[in-house]
Design goal:
The structure is a single chain. The protein is an alpha+beta fold and about 160 residues long. Helix content is about 20%, strand content about 35%. The protein has a single domain, classed as Sulfite Oxidase, Chain A, domain 2, CATH 3.90.420. It contains three helices and ten strands, in the order αββαββαββββββ. It starts with a helix and ends with a strand. The structure holds ligand MTE and molybdenum atom (MO). Ligand MTE binds next to loops.
Length: about 160
């Protein structure tokens, strides 16, 4: 009895520590690969946007502009999207193997006023465990399929003709 209680507590603290240590690797063809953790996420500029979930309800999502993340990773030489850089794209991957692609002009302020964020909060609260700790929000997509949950990596890659 005592040992099973101990085991229960052990697994509880283990799963809890996984949640605390959840991180997102930012990498690919970039000059400055880095890891986003719950700790250093807060030091990046936070913004709040409105977006609808699949059920049509509007929510407020807070987090960091994806453009700031790929800029910090030094993804675009001189931060001017042109020439060869226009073949770069962002591949986002999740714990369940789900993946989505975002093209760089979809987030570059020289090309668009749209904002895509890596969110950690919905309506002022941490995302629930089945969606967080980090989720991409693509507010202007009519379908929510690219609002990928449980993000583990963000890679900036270069598309090549086969
Ligand atoms: N990791 C992961 N994220 C995912 C999915 C998934 O299967 N795995 N499904 C997507 C799809 S198809 C939809 S419609 C939305 C649903 O999320 P919502 O109910 O919060 O709008 O999540 C998206 N994010
Ligand atoms: Mo969906």
């Amino acid at each position: 009895m005592k040992s099973s209680l101990f085991l229960l507590l052990f697994f509880f603290s283990l799963s809890n520590s996984f949640a605390q240590n959840a991180e997102v690797s930012v990498g690919g063809d970039v000059g400055n690969p880095f890891k986003i953790t719950k700790g250093n996420f807060a030091s990046l500029k936070q913004i709040t946007i409105k977006a609808k979930s699949k059920d049509g309800k509007e929510h407020e999502y807070s987090g960091v502009n994806l453009y700031d993340i790929i800029t910090k990773a030094e993804s675009i030489p001189g931060n001017i999207l042109r020439g060869k850089s226009l073949t770069k794209y962002i591949l986002v991957s999740a714990t369940d193997g789900y993946q989505i692609v975002i093209a760089l002009p979809e987030i570059d302020p020289d090309f668009t006023d749209n904002t895509i964020i890596l969110a950690n909060k919905m309506d002022g609260k941490d995302l629930p465990d089945d969606a967080g700790p980090f989720r991409i929000i693509v507010p202007l997509d009519k379908k929510q399929a690219r609002s990928i949950m449980r993000v583990i990596s963000i890679d900036v890659l270069t598309a090549e003709k086969p």
